[in-house]
Amino acid sequence: MIWDNAFAISIIPMLLKGLWVTIQLTLLGTLIAAVLGLVAAVIRRLNIPVVSPLVSFMVIFIRGTPLLIQAYVAFFVLPIYGISFNAFTTGVVIIGINYSAYMAEVYRSGIQGVSVGQWEAATALSLPTVRTWCRVILPQAVRTVIPMLGNYLIQMFKDSAVLSAITVVELMATAQSIGTSTYRYLEPLTMAGALFLLVSYPASRLVNKLERRYAPKQ
Amino acid sequence: MSAIIDYAPLLWQGLMTTILVAVLSGALCLLVAFSMGLARLSPHWIIRWPAGVFVEVFRGTSLIVQMFWFFYALPFFGIQLHPLTAAVLALGLNEGAYAAEVVRGAISSRAKGQTEAGIALGMSPGLRLRRILIPQSIPAMLPPFGNVMVDLLKNTSLVSLVTVTDLTFRAQMIRSTTGETAAVFLTILVMYFLLSVLLTLLTQWMEKRYALDRRALAVQRKALRQESRGDKVGAL
Fold this sequence. Notes:
The structure holds 2 protein chains of 2 kinds. Chain A is mainly alpha-helical. Chain A contains 9 helices and no strands. Chain A has one domain (7-214): Orthogonal Bundle (MetI-like fold). Chain A is elongated. Chain B has one domain: Orthogonal Bundle (MetI-like fold). In chain B, 80% of the residues lie in helices and 0% in strands. Chain B has helices at 2-6, 8-39, 45-60, 63-73, 83-108, 112-120, 125-155, 167-178, 181-209, 212-228. Chain B is flat, with a radius of gyration of 23 Å. Residues 229-236 of chain B have low confidence and may be disordered. The chains are: A mainly alpha, B mainly alpha. Chains A and B meet through α3, α4, α8 and α9 of A and α3, α4, α7 and α9 of B.
């Protein structure tokens, strides 16, 4: 018998524990990415000398390099300079920073989508810059990008498996360690895949629905 | 930094493997993209449905899970794949599933009149697809395809986890022998960055080259030139 059902059932609790870590990783990572991405998008838009081009370059650089190598750098290189966290924290921060580069682009398109009239109205009312951003531009910009952020959340959920390479014990690492300790890889890996699908498929359906609801009316 | 220069040949070999993996899985990705993307547009549920399951399964689970599955789980069915084969298969199928959605989206968003005109001219469905719908969809497909390819390139770093000796794998080797962690990782970080910039530039060039209106312009110009020379324009 290739597939051992009893074994498969016996590892479910461990895998669910791993799934919970994956979900925590994703939620915290998304939080970091959403905030950092917004900051990066606003800085780029403000056109501050030196700072804005630097942020732009960071965004392009992060988007152009693999998450795995970024995680390796954070996990292996930073401790040499005395900066070290546990694997989970490093993982959350790295995946958050990685996705903030993508989210910055999403926010940028959202900010660009706010009509010029809104800027002009804010200027005409002589609103201070901070009020213009916080009360006029961002509320409109963020609304349109919420579904896109949802897509990135799902993408991050799947991508977080990469962090198993820096010893974050999430779903993938759990499946792998069950495999190495029992010499049976088929069940843990298949079930890990199934769990990923079980969460991400309904989630993407939900985001699609949101997308249709929040889509700007033509 | 001197360690990097000493070990440059090793990094070079790794780079070549990375490029090999990227090219092979890129080719598989395109193959999967068109076959699955077109299958999902099929009017027969028996073709459409399996393609839909394929795309959702490969997009819904992590690439790294798929790669490990091909490498560690397939042997339980008696199929022992070479690490490179398993890696290319996982990468190509995974990114192909994303690209299939690009193909489907681009073709299904073509103006309906194009299909109707094809029918009116008595073209068979295959001919309509080959001569009208696909060529028109290519410009719309190129930018998202470029994104998929950059993604694929970056994801080749994961093949090091199934013991393919790519750039990342070589870097880990050099790191463990020399201890020059920072220099090695920063070097390959820059190498990956340059590769993806190169790929982005290539996509942008192709976008310009295959832009629809530019092509129309070129045809018009050619026609004008021939007219002014008094040649026959009837062929156009």
